[in-house]
Design goal:
The structure is a single chain. The protein is mainly α. It has one domain (about 1-250). The chain has 6 helices and 2 strands; from the N terminus they run βααααβαα. It has helices at about 20-25, 25-40, 45-100, 105-150, 165-220, 225-250; strands at about 1-5, 155-160. Strands 1-2 form a two-stranded antiparallel ribbon. Helix 5 (about 165-220) packs antiparallel against helix 6 (about 225-250). Keywords: Membrane, Transmembrane, Transmembrane helix.
């Protein structure tokens, strides 16, 4: 007798029959609970084994989706960073060129060169994101079709004359072979995303404080009350924005 575990091949259970543990427990926790049950001398029911098999497939499928989608998310952060960096560089360049009192057409040429460079970078990142997203959608579609057609043979084993303990051991080994490597990939991708989020937060904070510093210097130079009020407001906004970005960066590392 051969058991193929998939979302459609597993024994169908009505919502009333399904144990709430299926929704609240991970595969590992549910596996540990069933192992403890066997150690106490109790028998694992067919329903519980079927739920564990289904849980394995669901987790594997979700992890596969995460592995597909994380690179798309990474490209999105790169696009945001490019746009904000372009905006910050444009503001800084304008101030430097104003101080240098260069000819108007020379300033236009410099801005044009900067714009072309950043647009090329953004266009490359956008195309890369579209390509990765397209590949991701194709992989997810193939995965869905394989599961629906029963072609997913990753979780296939002969259960003939296998005890409950042996079946649990086989399922645990399948989890180690198929799901844990995906967990490691996701961990590395999340680490990359976290680094880019921190970089994005740094660029945004730099932008906030540059704008605030410019207004503060202007207020100190002119000494006008309106300029001082505007400078104070910009400093408060910079502090608030910095705190927000630090919170976002901290959350991304969790």
């Amino acid at each position: 007798m051969t058991i193929a575990i998939s979302l459609h091949q597993s024994k169908e259970l009505s919502p009333k029959e399904e144990d709430s543990r299926f929704y609240y427990y991970s595969f590992s926790n549910f596996h540990i609970e069933l192992s403890h049950k066997i150690q106490k001398g109790s028998k694992v029911t067919e329903k519980e084994l079927d739920m564990l098999k289904k849980k394995l497939t669901v987790e594997w499928k979700r992890k596969q989706y995460d592995v597909c989608e994380k690179p798309v998310e990474l490209c999105s952060y790169k696009l945001c960073i490019s746009f904000i960096t372009m905006l910050t560089c444009a503001l800084i360049s304008k101030d430097i060129l104003d101080m240098a009192r260069l000819n108007f057409w020379i300033q236009c040429c410099i801005f044009g060169i900067e714009s072309v460079l950043f647009l090329v970078i953004v266009q490359q990142l956008w195309c890369q994101r579209r390509q990765i997203k397209s590949e991701c959608e194709s992989e997810k579609k193939i995965l869905e079709e394989d599961i629906e057609n029963g072609c997913n043979t990753r979780f296939r084993f002969d259960s003939h004359k296998k005890t409950d303990k042996e079946q649990l051991m086989i399922l645990k080994n399948l989890y180690s072979q198929e799901v844990e490597p995906l967990n490691e990939k996701i961990r590395l991708l999340r680490k990359q995303i976290s680094c880019w989020v921190m970089f994005l937060a740094s660029v945004v904070i730099l932008h906030y404080w540059y704008c605030a510093a410019k207004l503060v210097i202007k207020a100190m130079t002119t000494g006008s009350n309106e300029g001082i009020k505007l400078a104070k407001r910009s400093v408060v906004q910079a502090i608030t924005g910095t705190l927000h970005m630090l919170v976002i960066a901290w959350i991304s590392r969790q």
